[in-house]
Here is the input.
Amino acid sequence: CPIQTPIFDPFQSSTYKNWRCSTRFCTELHDYHCISDQLCLFRYSYGDNSTVEGLLASETLLFDNGADTIKREGIVFGCVHSEENPDSALCKVSGLVGLGRGPLSLVKQIGSSIDDKFAYYLPPYRNENNSMGQVKFGEDAEFSGTEKFLETPMASDGGQGSFYVLNLTDISIGNSRLNVQFGGAQTPALLGDARSIIIDSGSTLTYLAKDVYDQVLNAVANVINHERFYSPEQDSLCYHVDNNGDPYEGLLEMTFCFVNADWKLPPSNIFMMFESGITCLAIKDGQMPIFGNIAHQNMHVKYDLGKGLLSFAPTDCTQG
Here is the structure.
């Protein structure tokens, strides 16, 4: 990646510290080995086949929890020295923040200081203001008095690690429930329950088990009147749309029905729009069910880890 911002120089910090192989955080990494002076060298691979390598370290960081600025010493992080196959979209950022359930997650390390709460706001991929997303902690993560939010309990991740998991009870196309049949031969219960789905702000697309995906795909194809085709390039069901007027006209709304909470998705949260007047369904079949971030656009999504609840409300994430 071309360098976008000044590189963090550990030698300029009086509070930076490298961690050794014998420490608990190092041994909990999936891929690490010891180098000179018994320092912990890690290697981490992402779903897009990019890989980073560096030293496990700690630093003193400052956070705003909505009520105060807090100072936390010894926050463990990966100080990356090299990368392979970097994602071009990530070349513009200084790093990645882990917000999962694992022990190295930032929210796990600072949980007591933020009342085990955090929230994020993801603007549309295409927005005139070029707005950036936001992450807020503690009191800052709460909903305003005008936001009408729904909440659903987070389920067990089935021993899969650091995932946040919800139970999906059904899916609606427009106003029609599909009465989705879960637990078929092609529905892997990798998370301990065929209805379980990971909510992941780091995954772009939504993935459903093959037989659930087929039910959704058939319903979508029966409702939309635009000329449709299968795009090998996008590996998805696609449609020709009006590139001059409203490209979402004639497309459908969809609702993911979770326990006690229906997450309603406008067409912009279901379809990926391309410059050539083509839109493709942002849902695919996959081994691991995932509710990806296209579906999270213009939503205030709050995680209350203490109560085990995920809450959400529509909002305009382009306004900061």
Q: What stands out?
A: DSSP finds three helices and 22 strands in the chain.
